[in-house]
Amino acid sequence: MTRLSGLRRAVLPAPAAPAGAQGRVIHVPMTAADRRRVRRRLTAPDGAELRLAFPTGTVLLPGSVLERRGGVSYVVEAAPEDVAAVRPRGMAEAARVAHAVGNLHRDLVEDGDAFLVLWDAPVELLLTRLGVPFTREDRPFHGRPSWEHEP
Question: Tell me, what CATH number does 66's domain have?
Answer without folding.
Answer: 2.60.260.20
